[in-house]
Structures are given as structure tokens and as C-alpha cells.
Amino acid sequence: MNPFLPDEIEALRVLVRTWPNTKMVVLGAGALRCSIPMSWRTTEDLDLTVAASIEDATAALSFLPGWSSDPRQEQRWRTPSGIAVDIVPASEEALARGHIEWPRSGFRMSLLGMRLAFEHAVVLRIAADLEVRVAPIRVIAVLKMIAYLDRPEVRAKDLGDLAHIMYGYVGDDSDRRFSFEVPDDLTEFDDVSPYLLGRDVGAVVDSEERRRVSDFVTTIDDQARGPGLLARMSILGPPAWRDPDAVLERLRAFRRGMEVQ
What we know:
Layout: H1 6-18, E1 24-27, H2 28-33, E2 45-50, H3 54-62, E3 68-69, E4 76-78, E5 84-89, H4 92-97, E6 99-101, E7 108-110, H5 114-120, E8 122-127, E9 130-134, H6 137-150, H7 156-168, H8 189-202, H9 207-221, H10 226-236, H11 244-258
Parallel strand pairs: 1-9, 2-5
Antiparallel strand pairs: 1-2, 3-4, 4-5, 6-7, 8-9
């Protein structure tokens, strides 16, 4: 089953034609849908990053027939069919700097972790004439942790997404569950998937990305803030995550996996 709706495919087709020689990567819920079924919530937009400056990206998008910029959200564009497309320009200079600054609002957006999307994207054919590059689920997990820490007041949905990612990262019958990667003392079945996600995240992050991911787990594990965040993750997560104490153990399993060298 195609993870993208017909209108989304047409939007992606237009963007691939717009940047034929530029790296463009699908992020967010669109990327998640390519890896696991997103049955826990609906999605209303496409998230992308493109290796271009804000100025060049804006100029290119302004020439697209029927496309319009959102007056309130600088990263958002609307297609002729009404699809919302959030585009984060990330040129080499911006990636090296670590952030972009939106010209109208002056809001500084961190690009920490965005390099992972470009470096580890996988090519997916979504139509006979269309291939797109999609960020893998381990990269989406990193970006969501960083995004939540940057703006926790508006990123609550990331907690639920991360719970579902950790739960579904490795299938119940995956050979990895029973491989040498899993330590003998990790006996809880539901801790294995977060642990393996942690291993895969730990293998790709640099020191600063690792620090921020560890900060995310520490924030939820913290005595003062942890209980409320654990409760939110358990409510927004899959049914198997309804016990906050169990959620904490799975987050610790993730951190343990990430520390494997």
C-alpha cells in the first residue's frame, strides 16, 4: 500500500522536478508512514528538508503554479489541492552553522541532527515515474527528540510518536530480537525494540546529537519532570505502554542500547 495520498504524490512530483539535482528528503509523519503504519493519529502535512538556502528555496517555490506561502508559518506552503507542505531549507552553510533564521519572524530553528536525514536517506519508489528520498525511522526518532526539547510546549505529539516508534521499531518476529545484539539479561520482550533502536541511533549520531538525545531521556527520567512526561507518553503511546513505570524501563533500555560502542 502506498504510504502517500495521490495529492501528496503530485506535490512530491512537482518538488522533485523543482530540485532535480538537489537533495530533498521526506521527514516527519510522511517518513514514518513509509516504515510503520501510523494508526495512532492522522497527518495533515508533508515535512521535507531541501539542501538549499532559505532565499533560493523561497524563490523556487514562489514560481510553482498554484502554490502559496502561509502568512503565519514561514516554512509552510500550500499546493493547489490544499496539501500543507512544510519545507526546511538546509544548505551546507546552514548545516555547518547549526541553524537557520526565518526572515519574517526572526525565529532561529536548530538544524541539529538534520545532517542525518541527508546522509542516511533511503530511496523509495512511490509511483512508476517517481522516486523520493526518505529519512529512516532511526533518524526521525533523533529529530523528534531534539525538536521536543527545543519546543516542548508545542511538540507534545512527538512524545506519542516516539512511544510508537520504540514499540514498533522491530517486528515481533524479527530475527534481530533473537540475535547476538540483544544482551542475555534483557529479558523483557517489550524492552528489546527500544534497545535495538538505541543501538541504531548510537551508531549514527555525533557527540552533540548524542548529548541531546541523552538529554531527552534524562528529562523524562528526571524526578521533578519525569512523572508527568511519562504519563503523557503512556497515554499517547500504544496500548502496551499504558504503565508509566514500564515506559520508563523501555526508555532506559533505549539509552542502554545507545551506549553500546
